[in-house]
Amino acid sequence: MGGRVLQNRSQCRLWGVSFLCLVAVCSAASADLTLDLAYIGAPGNTADNTGFGAVSYPYYISTYEVTVAQYADFLNSVARSDPYGLYSSSMASDPLGASILRSGSDGSYAYTPVSGTEGQPVRWVSWYDGLRLCNWLNNGQGNSSTETGSYDMAEGAWALRSSTATWVLPTEDEWYKAAYYDPDTGTYYDYPNGTDDVPAEPTDGTTPRVFNFGDDPYWQGGVYFTSTGQTTGASPYGTYDQGGNVREWMETRSVQFPDHMIRGGAFTEPAMFLYSGTTQGTDPDTEGYIGFRLIHIIPEPSTVMLLILGGLACLLFKRR
User: Fold this and answer.
1) Cβ-contact 83, 132 below 8 angstroms
2) Among 146, 177, 154, 190, which Cα is nearest to 239's?
């Protein structure tokens, strides 16, 4: 059994690398914003005793939360005018420190990350902001539409993932599996770093920390939010900061509609908010210390083969 498991996992990794290479080739001409992705395999796993985590298909999830710099790139592409409120003035006036500054006037707005915050998670973003970012990525970036693609924004809080979506917010099951499931053992952990042990709160502002959570002390120089690569608490799949830093939006609606689910806890919250059994929901318009990470959907193998064959056909045509 062990040999077969290792073989299957190797095949999954090979498929993941192949697919990433294909995406890079297809999008290299127009892509500006790039995300580190973790491959989530073991399709068809069962849920744990919370009822969460079962996902029938492989997919990719952002290794890290979407950063300030990445969101500023998005704003500079689509929000020279900002009719959908993708920029929040709190990004500049946050009492815990500004993250993105806006200059210019309507029609010529420009957005600049505050020095030192570029790798921190974006915050002061709503659920709708996350859907519009997904649409833009789905449509090829640049000056692409933010209103249709992965989601039809005309549907408001009822917006659902389209059948042709490639970039999406995670469902609660997708997020939960990436955070707590171990494909090697087929089991779930209580915390998103491959352990059932309650994480200890940081005791000083300089020692590398597993998660950014709890009370003082904060990070180096009193910084509240840790940047990409500053925490060590990786999930079994290799994702970071699914516990602490900022809470993260889910695509999934709460039973208390129009609320949508958020998970992961934030930089000031205790360990119970990092725990797998803790769920929260809030209104999709909410802006605060909530960010997001994204899912990239893997096309069916037949679709991938069509893309490959199409690329080969283009090469042959050029040679002629």
Assistant:
1) no
2) 177
Contacts with 52 (C-beta within 8 Å, 6 or more apart), sequence order: 172, 173, 176, 276
For the stretch 49-102, pLDDT in tens is 999 999 999 999 999 999 999 999 999 999 999 999 999 999 999 999 999 999
What is the tens place of the pLDDT at every residue in 228-268?
999 999 999 999 999 999 999 999 999 999 999 999 999 99
d(CA 112, CA 75): 9
Confirm if 239 and 63 have CB atoms less than 8 A apart.
yes
Residue 39 to residue 57: CA distance in whole angstroms: 11
| SS3 category, 273 | helix
Query: How many of the other CB atoms lie within 10 Å of CB of 272?
Result: 11
For 2-319, give the CATH class.
alpha beta
Residue 247 sits at φ, ψ, to 5 deg, of -65, 160
Question: Residue 181: which of 306, 16, 58 has the closest Cα?
Answer: 58
Domain residue ranges in the chain: 2-319
Which one-letter DSSP state was computed for residue 246? S
**Alpha carbon distance 44, 42 (integer Å):** 6
d(CA 149, CA 131): 10
For residue 306, the number of C-alpha atoms closer than 13 Å in the C-beta half-sphere is 5
CA 263 to chain centre: 12
Sign of CA dihedral 119, 85, 35, 246: positive
Q: What is the dihedral of CA 213, 67, 288, 219, to 10 degrees?
A: 30
How many Cα neighbours within 13 Å face the side chain of 205? 11
Give the three-state DSSP class for 231. strand
CB atoms within 10 A of CB 113: 22
